């Protein structure tokens, strides 16, 4: 016959079924929470890009106020008619935002602090495109934009719907 203290020792701890139930509950909660966290993380990345694009738009306006030009020495509010005048990295001196290539009259920058135009959250440079196709499926509607290639990183005259842009001028 078991004594009372021996009987108590026997029931200390959790049974296998109790442990399996706890593991199952943790698994179910993880299956619900992890996708929700990923959605929140992705949304915060897009919000960050929108904020940077607004800052870049302000920087382009300041560049225009001082030099009467946009990045790449483009004329303000004019949509180009051909490809080839894009700036794929706004840290480039040809953009005139962080540094100048010496061709911007009355340049008084930098218009954003050095190093503040980093890559987007997906590792791509922000760009300036004076001939951006807003409607790649249709006949084409063109605009001058600053932007990010978005989560898929596909860009440089490849227009897809995950690109995030700020329109500076359009046809």
From TrEMBL:
Its keywords, alphabetically, are: Membrane, Methylation, Transmembrane, Transmembrane helix
Where are the membrane-spanning stretches? 12-37
**UniProt membrane topology term:** Single-pass membrane protein
According to UniProt, the name of this protein is Type II secretion system protein GspG C-terminal domain-containing protein
InterPro entries referenced in this protein's UniProt entry, alphabetically: N_methyl_site, Pilin-like
Give the UniProt entry's GO cellular component terms.
Answer: membrane
Location of this chain's protein in the cell: Membrane
Asked whether the UniProt record includes Ribonucleoprotein among its keywords, one would answer no
């Amino acid at each position: 016959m078991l004594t009372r203290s021996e009987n108590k020792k026997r029931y200390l701890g959790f049974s296998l079924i109790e442990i399996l139930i706890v593991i199952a509950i943790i698994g179910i909660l993880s299956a619900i929470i992890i996708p929700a966290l990923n959605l929140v993380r992705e949304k915060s990345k897009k919000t960050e890009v929108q904020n940077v694009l607004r800052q870049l738009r302000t920087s382009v306006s300041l560049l225009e106020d001082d030099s009467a030009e946009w990045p790449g020495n483009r004329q303000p509010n004019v949509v180009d008619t051909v490809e080839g005048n894009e700036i794929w990295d706004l840290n480039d001196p040809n953009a005139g935002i962080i540094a100048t290539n010496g061709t911007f009259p009355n340049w008084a920058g930098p218009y954003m602090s050095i190093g503040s135009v980093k890559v987007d959250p997906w590792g791509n440079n922000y760009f300036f495109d004076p001939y951006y196709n807003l409607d790649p499926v249709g006949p084409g509607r063109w605009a001058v934009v600053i932007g990010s290639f978005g989560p898929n990183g596909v860009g440089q005259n490849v227009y897809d719907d995950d690109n995030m842009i700020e329109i500076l001028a359009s046809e």
